[in-house]
Predict the 3D structure of the following.
Amino acid sequence: MQVSFIVPAYNEAVMLGATLRSLYAAAGAAGETFEVIVVDDASTDATAEIAREHGATVVAVNLHRISAVRNAGARIAMGKVFAFVDADTLVSEAVIRAMLEAIRRGAVGGGARVQLDAHGTPWWVRALSSFTCWLLYRLGVAGGCFIFGRRDAFDAVGGFDERYFASEEIHFALALRKRGRFIMLPDAVISSGRKLRLFPGWQIPRQMLRLARGGLGAVRRREGLEFWYDGRRESADLRQSPPHGRDR
């Protein structure tokens, strides 16, 4: 079955190459036909050039809303399975094989366990991030850094709800669950912990508290979502590290 890997990207020149290399290697080893689509959301760096150099199809948009960016990639995708991978996330062959097996066994979609690359952060930050990733996995919450679904199920639920600037992957997963079995894969993707390095420690719980207070209204507008949308990126000299991960 053909798989379409859809990669939303904004100014991801530092990380995108490694992400694409991991995707091509893992998908090729899994033995299924596939395509890679990078949706370049008005990047001002070499994101598009790097995507083309690695053989990906590039879709240029100017949306700055992650739900809409993902949907733009899906509109041109040819696969029977859509896998949405953030531009700073590494995906292994084991994850892809497990995804395909889940689909063959009747799942409508799913996600994977997430491990954050939290190098360069205090030990308590690494411990807290590991616990949070474990808890979300146990609760069946799929991170947007890797979420997949059958094409027919994606079409049936209308894709990602473009009313949301954040939490769109949660609403998408809930919609898929109403149509069938949603699987959380035990194999992990490696996703970036750069937010743990780029934002002060106090800013993360403050952002979560703001969202809890604001409810759905808080994620239907970009204002107040700087944690996702302020565009901060790590420079290449900070990437002297193990494999990386996610951002919008």
